[in-house]
């Protein structure tokens, strides 16, 4: 079910064939923030570029003359590429230029799918995804039915599980194979491990709808579709069976994506039946600290975790973020920190993820919160992208 994709990484460049020799298509990327920006993905459509096809196109750094790592994605599975992805590096308060170029067939090489996701039938029916920083999984209908039929080994949860990796290469296939061969991904042999308990909690970014003191939520996903994997992004679609929230029928589907270099997955949720929703973070043993930063549109939980420490977070844009709250109860797995989010035109967007101290990415709680503040700044002040043709 993985759609066709094309990843381009080459240093051989052919001038864009759709243009004349006198005309070059130049992309300007403007950074309005007082920080250098890297690992942010720019999406270029054929409509924006004013071309008939993206198939043989790439992006060249006009300063170094090197071709940028890029990825083509067919979002709707119609056989036509919809977006060209690349990640510019732009200094603080500056503008960087890139040229759109054509790539000769013989110069193409396949880049590794660092950003990877897949359905996992060999482990009941998980759907798992990862990049060079983090990994996650959610649970499917077979795992749900096993619980409902009192069969051991099932999972009934629409929460999001975190896999704590500490290497920059893919581990999903390797860890699942280890599990299938009789080993365990619950033990850390140098690459990380799964020791994050979800249960019926929201895990890292699962949603719920609150009415008075009651919380309503979906069960496991029922359908899935991989949209893309590649060097820059993986994304996929999940559908959930209609669920009840205090007498209101909720219709839910989502597209989740994870880009290279990011600790946070993007959740684009289509939701009909409520004008707001809570995205949550499990509080586990309630021995950590919830920090709410409503001015920067995020909520975080930093906690002791095994022999290390772990930060989880929800971040949104000003458009969707309302406020945050903490729910503390003695009922198992029901204590969560929440971001309260607007549902606008049956859609809500937010980012959810984690930072594990043992991975070496974040030294302490302060470093994690600095990352969240910068992440929020970036998504609330996106690059300004312009197309110009230079004679």
Write a brief caption for the model:
With 391 residues, the protein is mostly beta strands. 9% of the residues lie in helices and 44% in strands.
Radius of gyration: 21 Å
What is the number of helices?
A: 4
Instruction: Briefly note the CATH topology name of the largest domain.
Output: Beta-galactosidase, Chain A, domain 5
Number of E-type strands: 27
What fraction of residues sit in β-strands? 35-45%
Q: Assign the structural class, choosing from mainly alpha, mainly beta, alpha/beta, alpha+beta, or little secondary structure.
A: mainly beta
**Uncertain segments:** 1-22
What is the makeup of the main sheet? 8 strands, antiparallel
Number of domains: 2
Secondary structure: helix percent: under 10%
- Euclidean distance between termini CA atoms: 44 Å
CATH architecture of the largest domain: Distorted Sandwich
The first-level CATH class name of the largest domain = Mainly Beta
InterPro entries: DUF4861 (IPR032342)
Protein name: DUF4861 domain-containing protein
Defining key terms:
27 strands, 2 domains, DUF4861 domain-containing protein, mainly beta, DUF4861, 44% strand, globular, Immunoglobulin-like, Beta-galactosidase, Chain A, domain 5
């Amino acid at each position: 079910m993985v759609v066709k994709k094309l990843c381009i990484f080459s240093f051989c460049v052919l001038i864009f064939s759709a243009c004349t020799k006198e005309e070059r298509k130049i992309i300007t990327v403007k950074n309005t923030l007082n920080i250098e920006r890297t690992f942010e993905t720019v999406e270029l459509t054929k409509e924006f570029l004013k071309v008939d096809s993206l198939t043989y196109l790439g992006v060249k750094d006009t300063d170094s003359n090197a071709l940028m790592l890029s990825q083509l994605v067919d979002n709707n599975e119609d056989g036509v590429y919809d977006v060209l992805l690349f990640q510019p590096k732009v200094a603080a308060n500056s503008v960087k230029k890139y040229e759109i170029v054509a790539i000769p067939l013989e110069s193409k090489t396949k880049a590794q799918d660092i950003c990877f996701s897949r359905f996992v039938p060999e482990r009941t029916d998980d759907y798992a995804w990862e990049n060079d920083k983090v990994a996650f999984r959610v649970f499917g209908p077979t795992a749900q039915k096993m619980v409902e039929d009192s069969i051991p080994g099932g999972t009934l949860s629409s929460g999001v599980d975190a896999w704590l990796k500490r290497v920059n290469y893919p581990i999903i296939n390797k860890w699942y194979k280890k599990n299938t061969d009789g080993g365990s991904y619950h033990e850390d042999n140098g690459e990380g491990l799964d020791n994050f308990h979800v249960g019926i909690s929201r895990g890292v970014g699962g949603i719920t709808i609150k009415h008075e003191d009651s919380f309503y939520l979906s069960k496991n996903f029922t359908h899935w579709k991989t949209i893309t994997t590649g060097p820059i992004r993986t994304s996929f679609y999940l559908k959930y069976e209609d669920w009840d929230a205090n007498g209101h029928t909720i219709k839910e589907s989502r597209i989740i994506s994870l880009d290279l270099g990011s600790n946070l997955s993007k959740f684009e949720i289509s939701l009909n039946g409520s004008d707001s929703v809570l995205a949550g973070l499990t509080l586990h043993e309630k021995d950590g600290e919830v920090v709410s930063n409503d001015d920067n549109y995020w909520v975080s939980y930093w906690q002791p975790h095994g022999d290390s420490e772990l930060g989880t977070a929800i971040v949104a844009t000003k458009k969707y973020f309302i406020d945050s709250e903490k729910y503390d109860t003695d009922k198992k797995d029901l204590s969560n920190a929440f971001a309260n989010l607007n549902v606008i035109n049956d859609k809500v967007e937010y980012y959810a993820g984690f930072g594990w101290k043992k991975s070496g990415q974040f030294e302490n709680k302060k470093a994690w919160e600095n990352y969240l503040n910068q992440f929020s700044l970036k998504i609330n002040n996106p690059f300004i992208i312009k197309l110009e043709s230079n004679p």
